[in-house]
Amino acid sequence: MTDARRRIVFATGSRADFGLLVPVIEACRTRPEFITLVIAAGAHMLKPAETWREVDERFGLDATVNMQQPGTTGRLADAEALGRGTGGFARAFARLKPDWVVVLGDRIEAFAAASAASVGGIALAHLHGGDRAEGVADEAMRHAITKLAHLHLPATVRSAQRIEQMGEPSSRIHPVGSPAADGLAEIAALDDASFAAVGSPQIVVLHHPAGLDDETEQATVRAIANAVGDRPHLWLDPNADPGADAVRAALDALPANAARTRRDHLPRAEFVALLKRLARSRGVLIGNSSAGLIEAAILGLPAVNIGPRQAGRERPATVIDAASPDADDIAQAIARADQIDRSTTGHPYGDGRTGPRIAELLAKTDPRDPALLRKHNAY
C-alpha cells in the first residue's frame, strides 16, 4: 500500500537556522499527514562545535551533507562548498523523495538545498525571504533563493512586499512571522548557577565576519574589546563565514581580561535563556548577529549593531547602530542602549505562532501542482 503522507525535508546548515527551524519542524511532526525528515549540512559538520549532534539528538538525522572542508576558508572556498552541497543535497533528495523541501535564510547551505530542489523539480518553501541584510554574500543569495522558491514564508509584511516586487505571485507569498518568536515564552530566564557559569555578564558579544578584509575584521574585534572594557561580558565565537579565522585569531590575541568569558557555542535554548536574563538585568547584546535585531528585539533586550553585516534589515526600537566600528563610537552606542526604555519597545516579527501557520500552508498547498512548480514572473 502506498503511503499517501507528504514527505517534508528540512535542510539546516548552521546553529543559527536550526534554532529558527525547530518550531516549524515540531509543528510539522504533530500532523499525521506528514513524514518529517531532516538533513544537516555545511557548518553543522565543522569542528569543534559539530552542531549536527544537536540536530540528531533533537529530531534524528535522515542525511548529512558535507560542504566546507577543514583548513579551507574564503569566498572561493565557499563557492566550492556550494557545489559539493548542491550535489550532496541532490543525492539525498533522490533517496528521500521529498514532496517539499524547506529552507531558511541566506547561507550557502540553504542556497545549495534550494538549487538542488528547484532544478530537480521539487517544491521549495523559503522562510525569511525578502529580508535585507548585507552579510558576506547574504543579500544576493537570499534573493536568489526567493527566485528558486515556490512558496514564500516571509517574516514581516515589508519583506513580503519586497518578494512581490521581485515578480513573485502574491498568492504564493504568506507573511507568517518569524519562527524566532515561537516558544520564547516557554523558555525561562537563565538561573543563577547557569548565569554564573558563563561569567554573569552584563554584555554578550556575538560578532561574525562581515565580508571585509582581515585587518578590518580584526580591528573591529579589538575595538569591541576596548569599548566593553572591564564590564563582565561573554564573547561567543563567530559562525563559519569567510573571515571567521581572522575574527577568532583576533579574539585569541586579546589581552587577558578577568571580566571576559568566552564560549564557542551555546545551544539555542540556553542562548535565549541568557538573552532573557540580560533583558531582566538591564544587559546589552552587541555585535552584528541577526539575533540582535530579531530575538533580542522580541525579548525587549537592547542591542548594539556594529558594521555593515545587517545593513538594510528592519530595525526595531531596541537596536542602536554604532556610528562606526571605532571603540569610542561603540562605547557611546552601548551607553545609549543602556538608556533605552524597555517598556515601550515592539517588533514586527509576529505572534509566536509561525510554526503551526507554516505547517498549515504546507498541508494545504499542493506540491505537485504544475502551476506551482512552473515559475513565472507575475509581471
How would you characterize this protein structure?
This protein has helices at residues 15-29, 52-59, 75-96, 108-119, 138-148, 157-165, 192-197, 214-228, 244-253, 268-280, 295-299, 327-338, 354-364, 370-373; strands at 6-12, 34-41, 63-65, 100-104, 123-127, 151-153, 203-206, 233-236, 260-263, 284-287, 303-305, 319-321. By secondary structure, the protein is of the alpha/beta class. The protein folds into 2 domains: 6-183 and 352-373, 3-Layer(aba) Sandwich (Rossmann fold); 185-344, Rossmann fold. A 6-stranded parallel sheet has the order 3-2-1-4-5-6, with helices on both faces. Strands 9-8-7-10-11-12 form a 6-stranded parallel sheet, sandwiched between helices. Helix 2 links the parallel strand 2 and strand 3 (63-65). The longest helix has 22 residues, at 75-96.
CATH architecture of the largest domain: 3-Layer(aba) Sandwich
Structural class: alpha/beta
Strand order of the largest sheet: 3-2-1-4-5-6
Indicate the CATH topology of the largest domain: Rossmann fold
CATH class of the largest domain: Alpha Beta
Overview in brief:
Helices cover 40% and strands 14% of the residues.
Fold blueprint:
Elements lengths: L5 E7 L2 H15 L4 E8 L10 H8 L3 E3 L9 H22 L3 E5 L3 H12 L3 E5 L10 H11 L2 E3 L3 H9 L26 H6 L5 E4 L7 H15 L4 E4 L7 H10 L6 E4 L4 H13 L3 E4 L7 H5 L3 E3 L13 E3 L5 H12 L15 H11 L5 H4 L6
Helix pairs in contact: 1-13, 3-4, 4-5, 8-9, 8-12
Pick out its properties.
379 residues, alpha/beta, Rossmann fold, six-stranded parallel sheet, 14 helices, 12 strands
